[in-house]
Amino acid sequence: MALEDTSLLALLLTRSESSVQDVFAQFEKMRRKRVEEIVDAGRRQKSNKTQVSTIGMYIRNIMVYIFFSLFGVSMISKAWRYRIDWEERDINKVVKSFKDGKLIAP
User: What is the pTM of this model?
Assistant: First the structure.
């Protein structure tokens, strides 16, 4: 996430006419929900991995591989569909995600 954070912060700093403190407040507001979702997902995945046996982990990993092979990338969580739209002029709308092949504001 560091590259995403850096890109968004650079965009906000170069396009906003607000003070640096206001830009950082806006940056935090734009990123907080997504970062908290990713941290929560990581915690859930960690607890899932510690509660199964070695054989169970092996079977689960094979099933996940098969599932994603059959259904493709579109099933990947929204954490990977996040984008910064550098062409967007309104800095309040630069954070977007892909849905149905199009960039949309969340």
Answer: 0.54
